[in-house]
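$ run holo --ligand "manganese (II) ion" --emit tokens
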Amino acid sequence: MQETVIPRPEPVTLAVQGSSARFPVRRIYCVGRNYADHAREMGATGRELPFFFGKPADAVLNVAEGTEGQMPYPPQTHNLHHEVELVAALGAGGHNLSPEQAARAVWGYAIGLDMTRRDLQAEAKKQGRPWETAKGFDHSAPIGPVHPVAATGDLTKGHIGLTINGEQRQTGDLSDMIWSVPEAIAYLSTLFELRAGDLIFTGTPAGVGAVVSGDQLEAQIQGLGTLRVTIVQA
Ligand code: MN
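-- output --
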């Protein structure tokens, strides 16, 4: 490998269920408002085209099967919100994919948390500014192991939910998505050339809310097990 003038950043990888090999992360794209009940709680009124934002790949906090992640409470917020989401991990990419091609590009699925500084997001919306500091901060993307689609099949329905300290906060069904996973990826591929290694957070059902230091989060998606994350004092 070519010599570098500063240490090379560590590549970001995710654990893979049933394998010792890892899934390398290229980019993280996120879909906004993709469940009707959450869109309503955020103020939307009707079906709109999907919209997207990003997180840096190294915002990932990977939590291996059977372990518990520790997410430091981030600075500069007093309103850190949880958003449980199905994450699609791409094994292929391309431009202008059809939904059928997009479905075939999915290598696997994981449970993810799109952690959000809601106070900074509200201020950014008000001022017409970017969401970067609200969405793309360090450790803002806790994520469990990738389950190969070869083992899970296409995930188009099933429970998605989140508890805090054992209490149910978010609940929904994957079939409630406004834009299905293949539809969202197909549309995203008209805006960006997608590649193997890209992760797509596909939106969250209703019930988002604040977490505080010490909270124990359990995110569940039928077929993908449980993602456990504790919020810790930074
Ligand atoms: Mn989200």
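-- notes --
The mean pLDDT is 96.
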